[in-house]
């Protein structure tokens, strides 16, 4: 019996450990800062390239080739449209229009930059963020705020796509 157990243990461990190696985490990181000098909220969104590419290709029914030499010329417009549908910002109970500034890549991460003017003092920010949740129900969008030096964070998921912080 012991010899049987010794033979099966390596097989069992291999199966268990390989299943952990195959598991992928679905996480996006969003940094929201306020620039007092520019009177604007600045958003930096970080998502995995393969995940956002899959979402764009599914939604727009075309190959995107994101972050490759074959990337299509309409990518920025598609990203702008996708992000404006999936992410909304409300400052002091007033909806804000996000302006897509551009994107860059860092290893396997796509970094998108957005901004919106906020001339008045910020007392609260609400965010709706359902980026990638239509593709990956286990997607987690972590939102970090730095407003007037006050740092707060939210964890948004498929079941909870909205949150609010007060300053």
Automatic annotation (TrEMBL):
<dbReference type="InterPro" id="IPR046525">
    <property type="entry name" value="DUF6702"/>
</dbReference>
<protein>
    <recommendedName>
        <fullName>Peptidase E</fullName>
    </recommendedName>
</protein>
<dbReference type="Pfam" id="PF20420">
    <property type="entry name" value="DUF6702"/>
</dbReference>
């Amino acid at each position: 019996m012991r010899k049987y157990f010794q033979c099966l243990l390596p097989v069992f461990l291999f199966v268990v450990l390989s299943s952990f190696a195959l598991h992928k985490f679905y996480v996006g990181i969003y940094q929201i800062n306020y620039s007092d000098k520019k009177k604007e909220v600045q958003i930096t969104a970080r998502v995995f390239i393969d995940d956002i590419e899959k979402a764009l290709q599914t939604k727009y029914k075309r190959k995107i080739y994101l972050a490759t030499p074959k990337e299509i010329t309409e990518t920025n417009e598609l990203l702008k449209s996708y992000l404006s549908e999936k992410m909304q910002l409300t400052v002091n109970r007033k909806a804000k229009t996000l302006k897509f500034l551009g994107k860059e890549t860092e290893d396997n991460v796509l970094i998108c930059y957005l901004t919106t003017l906020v001339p008045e003092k910020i007392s609260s920010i609400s965010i709706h963020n359902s980026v990638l949740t239509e593709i990956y129900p286990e997607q987690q969008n972590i939102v970090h705020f730095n407003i007037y030096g006050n740092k707060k964070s939210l964890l948004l998921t498929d079941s909870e796509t909205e949150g609010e912080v007060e300053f």
